[in-house]
Amino acid sequence: MVGMSIQLFLSLIVPFALIIYGRKKGWLSWKAFGVGLLIFVLFSQVLEKMLHFLVIDPSGTSLKGTSSVWAFVAYGALAAGVFEEIGRYVGFRFMLKNNRSYGDGLSFGLGHGGMEAVLIGAFSAVNMMVISHLVETGQFEQIASSLPATQVEMLKTMLNQPDWMYVLGGIERTFAIVIHVALSLLVLYGVRKGQFRYVVYAILIHTLIDVVPALYQVKIISNVWVIETIFAFLAIASLVFIRRIAEKF
């Protein structure tokens, strides 16, 4: 429960702290922030999930019609890259015609990554807290009888994780926000220049990044520290990019 609480705290406090920081520094744009949030929900949580429903097996670890692990990894990574980066392009190109400054890029990325932190990090922590309570009170088995066996097994695996795994989940959300801000600035730069190739670059980068968690999901990489170390380096590289691209705006 302590680990879950820390994950919940980090997933909420980091976006909130960045919002306060952005307002203090004067670069926060509520419009760009809201569009970034909306684009994430629409393209990642609605449109992409609709395609997943059609393509991914109910087990959640393979595609329908093939048991190839590599096909699953390639599809999952590419789908995330295409939907989220095209979403960013649509947001900047059509919804933020008069909001294309450096601060707008930062705000869009914060809205996009912050919403992901809340939905994936915070909601996940709350769900696991509820399930943990059900286990402690002896009510979990009653609910488990109505769930698919694969889902029950996944929940039990998550409950048996050590507390530091949940802490890592919260830290990972922080890394993800930084990466989303960097990709948002890359796409925005492409929109400002009128060159779609920068969107393609963002898709390719996003796809390569998402290969890492996909490999962990199918257990090709089993060491979580390898995954988090890679994400840490990606976050650092993103920070460097965020600072350096500022002069181009």
TrEMBL record:
<feature type="transmembrane region" description="Helical">
    <location>
        <begin position="28"/>
        <end position="47"/>
    </location>
</feature>
<dbReference type="Pfam" id="PF10086">
    <property type="entry name" value="YhfC"/>
</dbReference>
<feature type="transmembrane region" description="Helical">
    <location>
        <begin position="67"/>
        <end position="87"/>
    </location>
</feature>
<feature type="transmembrane region" description="Helical">
    <location>
        <begin position="224"/>
        <end position="242"/>
    </location>
</feature>
<keyword id="KW-0472">Membrane</keyword>
<feature type="transmembrane region" description="Helical">
    <location>
        <begin position="198"/>
        <end position="218"/>
    </location>
</feature>
<feature type="transmembrane region" description="Helical">
    <location>
        <begin position="6"/>
        <end position="21"/>
    </location>
</feature>
<keyword id="KW-0812">Transmembrane</keyword>
<protein>
    <recommendedName>
        <fullName>YhfC family intramembrane metalloprotease</fullName>
    </recommendedName>
</protein>
<feature type="transmembrane region" description="Helical">
    <location>
        <begin position="108"/>
        <end position="131"/>
    </location>
</feature>
<feature type="transmembrane region" description="Helical">
    <location>
        <begin position="164"/>
        <end position="191"/>
    </location>
</feature>
<dbReference type="InterPro" id="IPR011397">
    <property type="entry name" value="YhfC"/>
</dbReference>
<keyword id="KW-1133">Transmembrane helix</keyword>
